[in-house]
Write a structure and sequence with these properties.
seven-stranded antiparallel sheet; Alpha-D-Glucose-1,6-Bisphosphate, Chain A, domain 4; alpha+beta
Amino acid sequence: MTDQPHEQRITSASREIAAPAVSVFELIADPAQQPRWDGNDNLAQAEPGQRIHTVGDVFVMTNTGGSVRENHIVEFEEGRRIAWMPTEPGKDRPGHLWRWELEELEPGRTLVTHTYDWSGLTDESRFTRARSTTSERLMASIEQLAALTEHADTPT
């Protein structure tokens, strides 16, 4: 199935979480923690010690199906924003992006926005899967992050 005219290729979801931005961000910026909050049960594991610090970092993740992905950091602002573009090891990036934005509204309250942007995706074999990444699926991960961070006694 090819591109559909006027198709929306950017999907996002937002929710306020009753937790400090730093606590939420640490779970996102540490790939070893990501399977804990993946609302789509797609992420199996990442080796510890891959905490993201800057644009240009790359972390490696194994999906539940056993596929390995290199995730190239393309946006980064400590505690506020992180975005990566996944690819198969040794291959060109197919052009889709996962972004997390955190805005601390007040101490202990953070607006979390998760975006999937496939406007640059060129591999048509990935379009069906990209189309299935709805705002509800993105919200599932935000809900998991909320469950892990809200009312936590200590920062994560």
